[in-house]
Amino acid sequence: MQLSITKFEKPVYVFEPVLPDLNQLHEKLSEIWASKYVANMGPQHRLLNERITEFLKVSNTTLFSNGTLALMAASRALDLEGEVITTPFTFAATPHSLVWNNLTPVFCDINPVDLTINPARIEEMITPRTSAIMGVHVYGNPCDVVKIQEIADKYNLKVIYDAAHAFGTTIDGIGIGNFGDMTMFSFHATKLFNTIEGGALCYKDEQLMDKLNLIKNFGIKNEEEVVMAGFNAKLNEVQSAVGLLVLDMVEEEQKKRMKVFDIYKEVVDRLDGVEIVNTSDESVHSSYQYFAIRIDAERCGRTRDEVYHKFKNYNVFTRRYFYPLCSDFECYRDLPSSAVANLPVAKQASKEVLCLPFYGSLLENNGAESISHILRKVIVDG
Ligand SMILES: *Cc1c(COP(=O)(O)O)cnc(C)c1O
């Protein structure tokens, strides 16, 4: 069968925010307007905090105005010092959050299957200055949380996870926010669950709650006491209300994404040299945050960049995510751990990965089918 493949009329991007029904939002806003309580951890904030804790199956949650400030608060709350071992295969916010706490990021290579930090490489990166490991659950696939905890216990290190991609990911039914000392979630509009901008930290140790509340609210303890140099990272009532409505939409969105996943998979599985980046662990339920493929130029006959550029001819804007590596940023490239020889797997991955548009509404008008046909065409015919 010859399929005619045409250019999309409007540009198609990798993300599309899940947005609540405007009438429902209007009702919520009327409630907030009537109360005149629009900021400073009011009723919407409290309710969202409870609902997130329940949804993520965690013990404690503190909300923030974005994920980056949440990550910065995590390092501060755990009193980290010196060096933190992390991955170069992540978004800029991960290492930046360390530098803003006067910590030095030490880049550790990743494993070639799910592209998360490779525990087999962590021990050799540990020095007397190391205080923690900061892993990233890339594309919603979890790090090897068991091995990482073993290493942390052996060397007395803290563990922080960047779970910006992993809202709703579970391992054996256990919420991903239960591993390590603290886990950060981002609620940015591009993430599966969003409050337009927002974020959270989840943690087991209840004693951290007071400290996190001080950090995110100027260090103000009460009317007369300011006990530390905190910053301002409070999620406001309007954004909390958006979150309450979006949270009810997450499961439906995930179901739709599973269908998009299957449509793409059928095509990808039959392409030589193209593979879906996925966990091999059957106990994992993924968040379905991204659909990432790896293109092996030699086996496939096309480079990732060729495919990326060809897609644009069809008005489809895929993302080379994560490229460049954080270790190649101007602000990090001179670190000893940024040396190419230290990061061969991450280097190769950043040349081969491509994220395709991935959201529920691609099921409308055969959007997902069209994208998968374009993928096949640009790979097979060029
Ligand atoms: C989105 C993202 C962040 C930052 O979150 P913000 O809420 O935008 O500050 C951090 N890490 C990763 C891996 C992300 O994808």
From TrEMBL:
GO terms for biological process: polysaccharide biosynthetic process. The active site is at K191. Keywords: Aminotransferase, Pyridoxal phosphate, Transferase. InterPro entries: DegT/StrS_aminotransferase, PyrdxlP-dep_Trfase, PyrdxlP-dep_Trfase_major. It comes from the Bacteria. The modification N6-(pyridoxal phosphate)lysine is found at K191. GO terms for molecular function: pyridoxal phosphate binding; transaminase activity. Pfam families: DegT_DnrJ_EryC1. PANTHER family: PROTEIN RV3402C, TRANSAMINASE. Belongs to the DegT/DnrJ/EryC1 family. This is DegT/DnrJ/EryC1/StrS family aminotransferase. It comes from Cohnella thailandensis.
